[in-house]
Write a structure and sequence with these properties.
The structure is a homodimer. By secondary structure, the first copy, chain A, is of the alpha/beta class. The first copy, chain A, has eleven helices and 28 strands. In chain A, strands 5-2-1-9-21 form a five-stranded parallel beta sheet, with helices on one face. Chain A is globular and about 80 Å long. The termini of chain A are far apart. Chains A and B meet through strand 5, strand 8, helix 5 and helix 11 of A and strand 5, strand 8, helix 4 and helix 10 of B.
């Protein structure tokens, strides 16, 4: 039952990522009732997820309960899942059975991994989208070193510590740099039998270039910085199979103790539920006002939206997501004031950056000046920007402290393994590949 | 194959809890090779586990990788599991296949929950021994509030938020106080539909007294402090059944959205593997030198040991565990020097304390003065002692910061829900028990 005319309007926001959260924040003091729905109770600061995955930060340092961020009289937060959207009745159905009415609907449920139809690969090669993903990747990477230490103690040799990262975009590059750092800087002193610095990190990228969205000089710089860390890069390498313990490129088998997926994303399935035209990745085709054509009460924001400005698609990263959320909120405020919105969404691109382990990064800066940065300077820019945008003072302080500790003193942040002690494919590895001379002599031959 | 006479002696330590860790630390500069084996890669500071469970602290703040703590030339750390001990061959078999020789064996694998033979209860009512347990308890407690909010939104009523804690020892009391704090202090402002302060916490204790190990005046004080927080206590209440959504005391059914187990512990199964006399909880009977009678090369320390001094059993808490580990190390050092140990283990009891939420606690102090403390004073003593004994500067600093933030500003620490959104028994609850008048009006009757 919709409320009688003249009552307060209702905005329903689906998803509390960058887009949804910024839409809600920008509407906090407006004369509307807002309901924001998310499957999780927390907003995750995705750009720092890889630091949780690689044990520099703890989950709670980059996540904050949505309720806490949006504590406001006119906002209500529901931890629930969307099961249906009825555009003509203007209702959203939730899994719990709740039905929400809306006057304005903001759909911002983002994207998820795409395994290009090979969903069975997801168990073997996890991707990095959620805190659970991050903790699972951390578990696998740390466990590989522990298992190798045990194997060395038992047999005198160990499976080579080859880490394979599928995909050479920003996430792949960040994971590669961070694993290399962990092995070479932080784990060095911790093991008696294995040499953690013998770990190899390989990036497999299908296209001819890593960091395809970056200008060529920064791509080249990233390659140099990665190679300096010992990371191997193979471009033009299409992965044809992912199995426990190895991946295949064409017919070539590449052994891997831990395989990570950073290759593809697809839109959240909510795009389909909307019943409007989608692009091939499942993103919702929207016009300049972020509406699916013909549905002026619906805004699609963030990764889920396919927006083109001057024929160029707006990228699926944090900045445009925040801006779209704010744009949708501003437009809704205009309509509430009885005005007719006429300004379409414009993406104000301040630049883009990817970090490559400790003290290395590339940055394409668009604002406040234009330029390409590499190395230490880019890395400091990265640090500054990411702390600045982190939600909440507590997190900012905690993360800064943790970084100071980690980067200045080479101390581990959160190298805790929780969960199972199984690694997919570990037992299938040949156990006779790396032998080290030194050993403190506690090995027994009584087996 | 044991090494020829004259070679460096080998100490194998099983378990890196308080006892094992302190034994290893005390032997770090001795002329022995040490191998410490634990199923986990980290030492957990168990006295603060309940703060992780109740979202004040993050896992990494109370845990530290064993390798990092014990970085020393003569210590090696294996993340593995013990499958057998051969006392005559002086070997320990590990799950990975590794066989360790020992000259001295320190067994300190602690204790685990006891469900008194009803192991099927463990899924419904988790206990609190590991970081995984703590994160699971956190998930359930926080999720209950979220589910109630959703239910209220949908139906206008919600299942009463009854939390039942089985067991009134220190852990039960700590969990009860902390859940009450969360509901009354931190969650108060976060929900629109439900009133988190309506949450009820009930302690069911089988014996006639909570905190049975404490003197009567402190028991009384604890009861007053708990009641002040709104916690209900029922002593002499034997739980006869634990089911999703409720527990039974005799034939009485008590509804419960989250049931937690703090009732019983039993010794780690390693006691049995030793093949020596055990007490009824599975603890190893040891003499004054912490040896199982007739096995002078084996030391059993910590919760796994049944030690009696002047006819009184040493309690299974952190202090005696640390002291036993240090005693075993000191005795081994004596033997290495060719001396014959003649001093038996003496427990230096500095006292005992249990905290009851924010700013409340009871403490029985034995050293440096004798006395009973309650309330704020006991709580500050508790804070001080626990920060002092936390392993690692980083953790101490992080925990202090987090406490300041939480206790001074009522800010949440780590209220992140990860994992599934299912709560055992939630759907079986009657959905018509609590109705609140206020509601921001976004509910729909279109269902």
């Amino acid at each position: 039952m919709n409320q009688p005319a003249g009552q307060r309007k209702r905005v329903v926001i689906l998803g509390a990522g960058f887009a949804g959260l910024h839409a809600a924040k920008a509407l906090r003091d407006a004369d509307v009732d807002i309901t924001i729905v998310d499957r999780r109770n927390h907003h995750t600061f995705q750009p720092l997820l890889y630091q949780v995955a690689l044990a520099v930060l703890s989950p709670a340092e980059i996540a904050q309960p949505i309720r806490t961020i949006l504590r406001s009289k006119n906002v209500e937060v529901l931890m629930d899942e969307v099961t249906g959207i009825d555009k003509s009745a203007r209702t959203v159905n939730l899994k719990s059975g709740t039905v929400l009415n809306y006057d304005f609907l903001v759909v911002a449920t983002g994207s998820t991994h795409s395994y290009f139809g090979k969903d069975e690969w997801s168990k073997i090669a996890p991707g990095l989208k959620t805190l659970e993903d991050a903790v699972e990747i951390r578990r696998r990477v740390l466990l590989a070193f522990e298992l190798a230490e045990g194997q060395m103690q038992e047999t005198g040799t160990h499976t080579p510590l080859n880490f394979v990262i599928i995909g050479g975009g920003p996430t792949g590059v960040e994971l590669a740099g961070a694993i290399s750092d962990i092995a070479k800087l932080y784990m060095r002193r911790d093991f008696k039998h294995i040499d953690p610095t013998s770990a190899q990190v390989l990036i497999l990228e299908g296209s001819p270039h890593i960091l395809a969205a970056y200008p060529e000089d920064l791509q080249q710089s990233a390659i140099r910085q990665l190679e300096h860390l010992g990371v191997k890069i193979r471009t033009g390498s299409h992965v044809t199979d992912v199995q426990p313990g190895y991946v295949k490129v064409g017919d070539e088998r590449i052994d891997s103790v831990v395989t990570l997926w950073a290759a593809g994303v697809q839109a959240s399935p909510l795009g389909k539920l909307l019943g409007v035209p989608l692009d091939k990745r499942g993103c919702v085709m929207v016009n300049g006002f972020l509406h699916p054509e013909g549905h002026d009460d619906i805004y699609v924001c963030g990764d889920l939206a396919h927006v083109e400005i001057n024929g160029k698609q707006v990228p699926g990263v944090a900045q445009p997501a925040m801006q779209m959320g704010e744009y949708a909120a501003a437009t809704i405020r205009k309509i509430l004031r009885g005005e007719t919105p006429h300004k379409t969404f414009v993406y104000f691109d301040k630049g883009d950056m990817a970090t490559i382990g400790r003290k290395a990064a590339v940055a394409k800066v668009e604002w406040p000046f234009k330029g390409h940065l590499s190395g230490l300077m880019a890395w400091f820019t990265w640090l500054f920007v990411h702390v600045f945008f982190l939600i909440g003072f507590r997190n900012r302080f905690a993360v800064l402290r943790q970084w100071a500790y980690t980067y200045l003193f080479y101390k581990d942040g959160a190298r805790i393994i929780t969960g199972s002690r199984e690694l997919p494919g570990w037992e299938t590895h040949p156990q006779s590949s790396v032998t080290l001379a030194e050993d403190i002599g506690n090995r027994s031959s009584a087996a």
